[in-house]
Design brief:
It is built from 2 helices and 6 strands. By secondary structure, the protein is of the alpha+beta class. The protein has a domain of 117 residues: Nuclear Transport Factor 2, Chain: A, CATH 3.10.450. The strands form 2 sheets. Strands 3-4-5-6 form a 4-stranded antiparallel beta sheet. A hairpin with a 2-residue loop joins strand 4 and strand 5.
Length: 168
């Protein structure tokens, strides 16, 4: 049976011959796994120390407390020697942690502000490279002889850190 096509009175379509419309689907969103609260807390503590050193609130010797890799420490010290214009109190406006796409590390990114200027930062946070993974015995509690496993975030390092300056 022929039925008129709405809006086109001179065209008619057969009722049973219309092909089914393809089902359009949106692209699959990447699966986001939640990051543990312990990792976020440790990342926030380390980033705070690094930003305080960069903005001259803490002395450069505090970079050791932040657990930076040797390469990241050298790059930050050189950047601080080259630029002295970013001294003053700093406020972390946002900080996000997610799993890195290409490895076991975590990406830390966010923004901070100092003296009415906004700054963005990026960091890579994860287990120290080149060290074997230690497995803790299940029956050993935390005592004076406890050797922390590399999987614990408090033993991790910041492998890289970038502070992106505002456009002037």
């Amino acid at each position: 049976m022929l039925l008129p096509i709405p809006g086109f009175s001179y065209l008619k379509a057969s009722e049973g011959s219309t092909p089914p419309h393809p089902v359009l689907s949106s692209p699959a969103a990447p699966v986001v796994t939640p990051v543990s609260r312990e990792i976020i807390t440790e990342a926030r503590r380390r980033i705070r120390i690094v930003l305080d050193v960069i903005f001259r609130i803490r002395p450069p010797s505090h970079l050791e407390k932040a657990g930076l890799s040797s390469v990241a420490t050298r790059l930050l010290r050189r950047r601080m020697a080259e630029r002295s214009d970013n001294a003053g109190p700093v406020r972390v406006d946002s900080l996000h942690v997610r799993e890195a796409v290409d490895g076991p590390d975590f990406e830390i990114y966010g923004c901070c502000s100092s003296r009415a200027q906004g700054w963005a930062f990026l960091a890579l946070f994860g287990p120290p490279s080149g060290l074997p993974v230690l497995i803790e015995p299940q029956n050993q509690g935390r005592d004076a002889n406890h050797i922390p496993a590399v999987q614990e975030p408090r033993c991790w390092q910041i492998h890289s850190f970038r502070l992106l300056s505002p456009h002037r």
